[in-house]
Design brief:
Elements lengths: L4 H15 L3 H4 L36 E4 L1 H7 L1 H37 L1 H4 L1 H54 L4 E4 L13 H11 L20
Parallel strand pairs: 1-2
Helix pairs in contact: 1-4, 1-6, 3-4, 3-7, 4-6, 6-7
Length: 224
């Protein structure tokens, strides 16, 4: 599934850049970034000289396996969703970068006229910039939550579309139990329902329209 780290990097870049801006913004304490699920790690390459994995030739009647990741990564609609999510993430990053640049420019302009506008006006405008900085941090965290919600909803749709195909494969192979392929170390490929589901899903749907979920007005989840 899609990684959401680049949005957080954009938020962190905004915070770090602002902290290096004029002293009027330096007193603002950066808000903590929203928690993110850990990125999936690629499978480690086998060590040189390691024994080859054993070949499983037997099948167990009534036992089948299914990979949800395989359906998403292998199907046309799943690949489309991943591409679309990347587009939405790029749009969100561009929005945050624009806000960050505007804030930096205004902070530099305020610092340049510090000696001419008086202490009272300088402090007042500085406080307004601090409020904008806080708002930018909150906006970055909100965009992250929105993208995560969008990803979850879009991939749920893919699995909903695949459900009838899974049912057909279960009947065709007379499965009494279906195991998650990610929880199975080794299995005979003949027991895997995933390829048949992907083929059938490709014949049913290749894409669907969706946009970023909007969570305006919803507070960030409380950290425990």
């Amino acid at each position: 599934m899609m990684k959401t780290t680049s949005l957080v990097i954009a938020a962190a870049a905004a915070i770090s850049a602002l902290s290096a801006a004029p002293a009027v913004l330096a007193q603002t304490k950066p808000a903590a970034s929203a928690a993110k699920p850990p990125a999936a790690r690629p499978a480690a390459a086998p060590a040189a000289g390691a024994p080859a994995a054993p070949v499983i030739t037997a099948t167990v009647p009534g036992v089948c396996i299914l990979s949800r990741e395989g359906i998403i990564q292998g199907s046309t609609v799943g690949k489309y969703v991943s591409t679309r999510l990347q587009q939405l993430q790029t749009q969100a990053n561009a929005e945050l970068t624009g806000d960050e640049t505007s804030l930096q420019n205004d902070a530099k302009a305020l610092e340049a006229k510090k000696t001419t506008i008086g202490d009272a006006a300088y402090q007042q405008q500085g406080q307004a910039l601090q409020q904008r900085q806080t708002a930018l941090q909150q906006k970055a965290q909100q965009r992250e939550r929105e993208l995560q919600a969008t990803e979850q909803k879009a991939f749920q749709r893919v699995m909903q579309e695949a459900t009838p195909m899974v049912t057909e494969q279960v009947k065709a192979k007379n499965c009494g139990v279906v195991l998650d392929a990610q929880a199975v170390m080794l299995a005979n490929a003949a027991m895997d329902l995933t390829p048949g589901v992907v083929t059938a899903l490709n014949g049913k749907i290749t894409q669907f329209d969706f946009d970023r979920e909007h969570l305006d007005g919803q507070p960030a989840p409380q950290q425990r």
